[in-house]
Amino acid sequence: MDAARLKQSWSVVAAHGDQVPLYFYSTLFLAYPETRQMFPTNMAGQRDRLVNALGHIVSHVDQVDRLVGFLQDLGADHRKFAVRAEHYPAVGDALLATLRHFSGEAWTDELAADWAAAYGLVAQVMMDAAQAAEAKSPPWWVAEILGHERRTFDVAVLTVRPQYLLQFTPGQSIGVSHPAVRSWRYYSPANAPRPDGTLELHVRAAPGGAVSSRLVYGCAVGDQLHLAAPVGDQLSLWQAGSSDLLLMAGGTGWAPVKSLLEQVAAEGVGRRVDLYVGARSRLEFYDSEAIDKFAASYPWLRVTYVAGSDPRRPGEFVQVADQALADGDWRSRHVYVCGSDEMVSHSVAALTAAGYQPGQLHHEGFGKHWYGPAFRTMTAPDDSGGVR
Asked: The whole model's pTM is what?
């Protein structure tokens, strides 16, 4: 298997853009119609995710150690789509047909053999990982909605209880899907693990987001959801040791930060914590009662609200990170940032420019990536492509 030849081949194919996933899925569904039910009704986002996933795999084909972990996570995660071992040959056939179609005269027997070998390796690692995962956790958990509160027009807070204990670490994310929607969206629970196993989810309805819109507008107490295994460690507190913290949250990015505060309170290690909570306007601080309760309960916590727009400052928009940097020098602390793509990217850029080191900045990946579990490090998957 010639890694350089595979990379060159992929660059030729990928240059055809949206035509590549469109051809792939058309080929797959025509030749193997039984696979259609494993994919969402709206395939627009799915097409982008395929290209990003393939690009990631091909770009690391000569770095086996990095690639194997990615593929193992991917194989275990795909159980929630009811992917079985017999589906892999179908996907391989459609993939090779697509590569051959867009390679044109550059397609050779040697290149075909390289791609077949590469896909065979990928499929085997994923299948082995899926089989190993069966001994550890179910493909998904069924959960009942115990509480559903509309806090703003487009934000709801849900309390759900899985039928079986779903273990997670504060800052991780879990996949959420409604049985009527063949899509998954990842959310960070807004609580540390509880004795009763319940989870608090903060959901903003994203424009065109099948899952998020269903959760906000189309669910009620008593309904059932599906939950997938927790993923990601970019927001976990273990990276900060016992250091003091600066926490910055925008919108429903407050959810994982809330879980971190609960963990700090339970640990009792004497950290000092400054929390900056941002929203587009004062009316959008949807969980201020809980925030104020934290501030009143713990002397080690100081809270600052940042309203982006203010009638007293027409035309001016204040960013959370800019306010925090104006208020003090936090370079002795570990900094956790969670919010929209724009909020996270601006915050990281501003903090880096101010001299903060990468090792002290903790945030999920941002950008419109594929849905899978390499998850919140390279993606924050929404059915609409956004983070939160």
From this structure: 0.76
